[in-house]
Amino acid sequence: MKKISAIIIGVSSDLGLALSQRWLKRGWKITGSYRKKYPQVRQLERAGARLVDCDLSDSVSLRRAAAKIKKLCRAWDILVMAPASLTPIGAFTEVDFKDWEKSLRLNFINQMQLIYELLPLRNKVTRFGPCLLFFSAGGVNDAPLNYSAYTISKIATIKMAEILAAEVPDSRFITIGPGWLKTKIHQETLAAGLRAGSNYQRTINKFKAGEFTAMERVLDCCDWLVSQPKKIVSGRNFHVQRDQWGSKKLIKKLTRDQNLLKLRKYGSI
User: Fold this and answer.
1) Residue 139's pLDDT is what?
2) Exposed/middle/buried for residue 22 (C-beta within 10 Å: 0-12, 13-18, 19+)
3) What is the pLDDT of residue 71?
4) Does residue 236 belong to any structural domain of this protein?
5) CA-based diameter of the chain, in Å?
6) Which of 64, 150, 163, 251 is deepest in the core (most CB within 10 A)?
């Protein structure tokens, strides 16, 4: 039986690391990229992962990484985009615009460039078609303060997944909102202090209370999503805590309503 081949961009992120570890234990072929070579990244390599360094904020580093990944992985079944950064944190009018633009490149534009490079390597001979997983965040139904670059990047990613699902019908494109995970990314908010507004104290309270989404639940959701046909999951934005993924009830609703779990205008006058 052919091993599943997955590319995970951002294995040095906590989420990318956890996915890599789980799928390596299953005997999957893991190819990926890292920004910093933490000890856990070296452990992944010893376990069989084929990894390359990549700084997604640097276009030169991105192109080099893409070329290396293409040599290491001739065909992929699953592609995961895990890198993210909350910075710059602060009101749009108060942050350095160059930092704001850099955030859009790291969180969205350069990730799309890497996808553009790797899409031709997708393995079309699979049961439900190759699958690309993105991770989304808040901001779909409100206007989060002080995180505009990050929020806009994630909103663009959600819509891009829907567009790709329509333009590349042989593949599945899914975004996942993991909720509050206990990961390194929150250190950016803590470092920002009052520039993060009310989210600074909220983050402190989350750590004190230990109120985080369990990583295992996020991984279980990823596993469920990659096992579903495109008519159920492709082009949609799932939330780990709020949506009844894995249930027959949700599958039935998704089958009936093609607008469900997608970005849409609210109401009309």
Assistant:
1) 84
2) middle
3) 97
4) yes
5) 59
6) 150
Residue 112 lies in a domain: yes
CATH number assigned to the domain comprising residue 111: 3.40.50.720
Domain for residue 74, yes or no?
A: yes
Residue type, 198: S
Write the single-letter amino acid at 175.
T
In angstroms, the CA 190 to CA 223 distance is 31
Number of domains within the chain: 1
Residue 162 makes CB contacts below 8 A (sequence gap 6+) with 173, 235, 236, 262, 263
Give the rounded distance of the alpha carbon of 259 from its chain centre.
21
Per residue in 195-204, pLDDT tens?
999 999 999 9
CA distance 105 to 113: 10
Instruction: Determine what percent of the chain is predicted with pLDDT higher than 90.
Output: 94
**Burial group, residue 143, by CB count within 10 angstroms (0-12, 13-18, 19+):** exposed
pLDDT in tens, 198-257: 999 999 999 999 999 999 999 999 999 999 999 999 999 999 999 999 999 999 999 999
Q: Residue 130: what residue type?
A: P
CA pair distance 266, 184, nearest whole angstrom: 34
Q: ω into residue 88 within 30 of 0, thus cis?
A: yes
What's the pLDDT band for 1 if we cut at 50, 70, 90?
low
Taking each helix axis from N to C terminus, what angle separates 110-118 and 59-72, rounded to the nearest 10 degrees? 20
Give the start-end residues of each E strand in the chain: 5-9, 29-34, 50-53, 78-81, 131-135, 172-177, 237-239
Range of the domain at 39: 5-256
